[in-house]
Model the fold of this input.
Amino acid sequence: MEDKLLGQLLLMGIPGAELDADTARRLKAIQPGGFIIFGRNIKSPEQVRKLLDDLRDLSEVEPLLTIDQEGGRVSRLRLIGQEPPNAQDLRKKGDLKLIKRHGALTGELLRLFGFNLDLCPVLDVSHDDEADNSLKGRCYGTSVNEVIEKAATFNHALRRKGILSCGKHFPGYSNADVDAHHELPVITRSQEALEAEELAPFRAMLPDLDSVMVCHSHYTAYDADRPRWPASLSKNIITQLLRNQLGYDHGLVMTDDLDMGAILNEVGFEDVIKECILAGNDLAMICHRVEMVEEAKTYLAQLPEQVLDQALERIRRAKDGLAAPAPFSLETFESINREIWDLRVAVMGEERARVLSVEDGKRSPVETY
Done:
């Protein structure tokens, strides 16, 4: 297999807000399948668009250009613009028209900057809005039906604007008692309980999801014989459950960030890279240890060609439908930004809208990663 094709199985972060000569050279050699943008990459509207244009220019195959732009504290672009309302506030307001507007504005904003994939919606069910499991503020419902109704409304509006969506965090963080950014959650619920609740939003929405992100929890119901084995590396969960049982064969499957504590503290890097693709993922996500990406390619080269071909074919199919960026202008950005503020006020009221999300030292690194 051609070396450059192996890079297509990697979704990676980049170091800074612009591409220096050395970074550009490395990325051109690696030819990653996609790039994920974080706060460290965001300085101004014009700079973000130039960065994405530069990434596209050095890619021989159109790259996935993605970001976590959910709303609330998990909105990378709030660093240069208004902070959209989060899923919990939209849920409590209870107006589907506002959720639809949120999806449409998110799509317009991302197309303007040149993104083509948004890593949302979150499909986890909230049992406790104050739980310390990284989901605070991010869930569209406290019941399966509420999640399906509201997340599907957002998902449909986002996709209509030409942005691919990603359901997360399969098969569900709802009952995690720790934050996977720090350590591995172990979830001991039965398959019957998981089927009835955590899996239900995914089952309902899979036909309309362009991709699915697999989380790092260990599920004893599916991997009883492999203690502390993350779902993101589990063939039982990805191939048997998601691909075969739930029939998700049309879209991409990706790991959550492989630089999270739930992975780093449990499995060596070589095994992580090999096992995540053998399990059925199409994309291995390396967000922060970007110096490890060349090493990851060497491990991918050791996998059976049939496994690699299947993942590459799904990536190719997904990229066939990528929409081109919208023409960029600062005036358009400012117009969308005003509409996001108006949406925030409509959902939260003006007094609450003026109080932005803050990092209080107790929240998940998901805010700043």
In short: The first helix runs from residue 3 to 6. The mean pLDDT is 94.
